[in-house]
Amino acid sequence: MKFSIIVSAPPASCQAAFTAYHFARAAISQEHEIYRVFFYGDGVLNANSLSISPQDETNLSQAWDSFLKNNEIDSVACVSSALVRGILSPEESARHKMAEVSLYASTQIAGLGQFVDALLQSDRLIFFG
Known about the structure:
By secondary structure, the chain is an alpha/beta fold. It contains five helices and five strands. The protein has a five-stranded parallel sheet with strand order 4-3-2-1-5, with helices on both faces.
């Protein structure tokens, strides 16, 4: 089965993003395919490379980054959601003349067309938020 996962929940204030992460890991371990992870709304905070968690807690943003890279999964942060929350790719940082990049390299910034593509290319679209 080919899944796409939409995450609209932030990493720290509710369980949904953590559940999405565990679902994705379980799907891969069961030899399913994940076509794309799409971070939307507050979910783009899961792609924030500048977030720091307390030492005794899982850094969910870092966990997502490692998982996406290790499994070569396409990952997208919605451009509108990302920019308003200060999540910047190198390109967006330069375009807006900002000094920092805050997007993990495992994720790209793109529009809702990537969401529609994920919908069309997947057997199931799972929403966590």
